[in-house]
Amino acid sequence: MSLKPRNVDFTETWTHLKETVAGVVGLRAVERSVWNTRFSDVYALCVAHPEPLADRLYDETKSFLEEHVAGLLARVRGSSSLENNDHNDGLLTRYVTAWREYSQGVAYLNSLYSYLNLQHVKRQKVSDAEIIYGSAATVSCPENDARQLEVGELGLEIWERVLVRPLSTALTGRIVSALCSARDSTPDPALATTLKEAIHSTVQVRAFRVRAPLQLYQQLVLEPYLAAAGAAHARMAAALLAAGDVAHYTRLALQQLEREVSLGARFLDASSAEQVRACYERAAVAAHLPALHATVDKLMRDAATDERDGQERRDDLRRMYVLLRPLGGAALRPLVDAAHAQATADGHALLAQPHNKDEAHTHFVNAMLTLHGKYSKLFADVFGGAQAFIGALDKACSAVVNFRGPTDSCARAPELLARYCDCLLRKRGGGGGGSGETDVDEKLSAAIVVFKYVDDKDVFQKYYARALARRLIHQLSASMEQEEAMINRLKAACGYEFTNKLHRMFTDVAVSADLNAKFQQHLRDTNASTTPGFSIQVLQAGAWPLGGAMAPLAPPQQLERPARLFEAFYRASFSGRRLAWLHHLCTGELRTRYTPRVCHLSATTPQCALLLSFETVDQWSARDLRDALQLGGDAWWRHLRPLLDAALLLAEGDVGAGDGGGEPAPDATLALNLAFSCKRTKLRLTCANAPSHQGAATAGAGAGANAGAGADSGESATHCDDDRKMYLQAAIVRIMKQRKVLRHTELIQEVVSQARGSFAPSVAMIKKCIEALIDKQYLERAPAALDTYSYLA
Amino acid sequence: MSGEDFDALDRGDNDGQKSDKMFTLKKWNAVAMWSWDVECDTCAICRVQVMDACLRCQGESKKDSYGKQDCVVVWGECNHSFHFCCMSLWVKQNNRCPLCQQEWSIQRMGK
Ligand SMILES: [Zn+2]
Ligand SMILES: [Zn+2]
Ligand SMILES: [Zn+2]
Question: Do B23 and A593 touch (CB under 8 A)?
């Protein structure tokens, strides 16, 4: 063959070429040599001299293909009635047979016309990018101008135009009908293959297109199918729901959804998977939301029961969730609300269960842990731990923990939780024990779960600090490791500021132990007589919740010497410090020497002083004794009463009964009961707590007794407000010192976010605190700007 | 604590020697409280109680894992007292007591 352009007789060449083209398109065997000759003919026509004949060749080929496809159309249609949708009438099979032959043939033809495609067509083609980005907006797309299609593409375009269009209704009807019956029963393999190929032909025929390559598939197959499927799904769902069994519905709906999705995956284009799923969800689920939502409360209630079929009910609920989840937040809302309502109701019911009032704290914490554990597990199991449901559980727990009955002035959670911790951290009196150390650790860790839901964390902190003070001062802690671990847990939950004072209390105890050892060493070094029975705790002011601190007392002689020795030692060890004795917290141990059986008495310092006053005198005028010991106000009665109750002292006349600090009658007397006897060898004399006006509750000498914790519940609430104001003022000063100038709303926001760990302050309270600080000249309203404060250094 | 008696201090009276004493004091667990010996318990510079760490130290110990603080008090010759941290920063700008304007000189440090 020669590559040189030459004169070519078009008619003659085309006659031969056409014969081969017909052979190629009809998939008849074409000899290699003939193929090669025709390949050269295409070249020769394209480069013909004087005038290239490419356009003519293109047009002739197009006419030939149109005629050929028209012939195929007649073959495919056969005798089928185009009006019916019987997918078994042979039309689909004939269509697929013709398509297989033609699409293959056209692909071969495209190779035969390689030169024409390459030299003639490509040059005119616009780049995809130009089409997509619009710089070729005025240039038509290849599919709109046949001159710009490669021969293979041209062949496909002709197939669509000449064969598919006239048959479109018939094809659609049969494809949809076949798909619908495939949903209900597996089609025989031949039909399945045919169906699949027919559907994919609508994709392949446009595969070369840049714009909307799936349009034909969508019009012919997808959209009509989804319309039909949607109607079928809706009918099915309505029938199921009308039967009234939601559990049955959820089970079937999920099965059908699965079936629908796999049907789509098998027969439809991969790009349609989402639409097939969405179609089902829309028609079978979304359309029936009100009916489904009406059932969620009951489903949730049933799933939460512990009865035997609970697991089945949970499966029902899980299926409902799986069905609703894809429809988004609004569809899921009633389920989330039901979860919240169920957990809340269950929580209140758990709290309301009958229990021993003395064990209210254990009951409270256990109920909350049961609630939290049960629903955490349920929601993880049924909802996969989805955030919305964890949030619902948190809200429910918080509502239950902070619940206030109509008669409660404040939520009891802070007090009960603090008492729970106190009981765990205390030394267990002999006998009752049983819970080991790891058990206690676990319980304390679990208490943090409840603690996180407490709104008034500052109130909890007060109760906790008081109980901690009691444990530390009276050495009631079961283990210092546990004490420290618990403070660290609280710190991890709430931050440094929250536990600062607790840490300082804890540190004081360690420092005091060291100090005692040094003091004893000092006594040995200076050859002063040692005081083995003497031990001391030196607490730092400001960290301990101790009130009524420095009540004057003339200590018994026996105590004066060690006290003075220690004071001297302390003064020499430190500088700039003031030391005050907290007599009401000091405890002494006295041994009776006048009773037939020796008895060890643990008592407060004033009580020791009271008893020791009878060393030399058998009977005291109550008034004289009180004055001698300088026990003023109610302290007198508080310390005296336990001695009378224990019958260590005997009273004659009115010695000053009454918590208000009653005055002893002038002739009232006290005497040592020489006939005192006690069954036990150890007697702990308790002492009533100082009333609230003496300051935020003393770490009462009510050592050993649990009474202290419960008694002071009312006063906490009233003191809380003052403390919150102090806290807020300190926070405002801190913020303003750092920021210097700040707008009102920003200041409020910062204060709220700082306080969040302890309590939720009201804006009104913050405003009051700002006003107070303006009065105290810490802040001023910025002169120039409205609503802005500036810090006064 | 050993079982030795307190009144062993007061010679001439112990268990071996029967006396007409009514009680023996075996043990005394004393509790005392210390505070800085100051006239005003708030530091005028940072406006925090002197028993608490100053603002700056509080900020820093937040990062610390332990709340161990070493924020002591300092007294001037004028007898006014402040956090030592606060005063150290103050005198860099102004060597006078913020309360009485006398020239600042340290009388003693808390320990
Ligand atoms: Zn300061
Ligand atoms: Zn400091
Ligand atoms: Zn001064």
Answer: yes
With CA atoms as reference, report the closest residue to A155 among A274, A67, A49. A67
DSSP state, B2?
A: -
The count of other CB atoms within 10 Å of the CB of residue A73 is 18
Contact B67 A495 (CB under 8 A): no
Average pLDDT over residues A500-529: 88
If you search the block for the tokens 């006998």, which residue do you land on?
A: A431
Nearest-angstrom CA–CA distance, A784 and B26: 71
ipTM of the complex: 0.82
pTM score: 0.74
Residues β-bridged to residue A620: A670
Ramachandran class of A548: left when φ > 0, alpha when ψ lies in -120 to 50, beta otherwise: left
N-term to C-term CA, chain B: 29
Instruction: Tally the residues of chain A.
Output: 793
Token pair of A264 as six digits:
């789509």
Name A135's Cβ contacts closer than 8 Å, sequence gap at least 6. Answer: none
Strand partners, B34: A540, A579
Ligand (nearest to CA of B85): 2
**Beta carbons within 10 angstroms of residue A510's beta carbon:** 11
Which one of B5, B21, B66 has the shortest CB-CB distance to A533?
B5
Residues of B in contact with A592 (CB under 8 A): 22-23
Task: Give dist(CA A695, CA A545) in Å, integer.
Answer: 9
Residue type, A234: A
Share of chain A above pLDDT 90, in %: 34
Q: What is the DSSP letter of A406?
A: T
Q: Which of residues 543-572 of A touch B (CB under 8 A)?
A: 543-544, 546, 549, 556, 558-559, 561-563, 566, 570
CA geometry: angle A579, A584, A590, nearest 5 deg: 110
Contact across the interface for A588 and B33, Cβ inside 8 Å: no
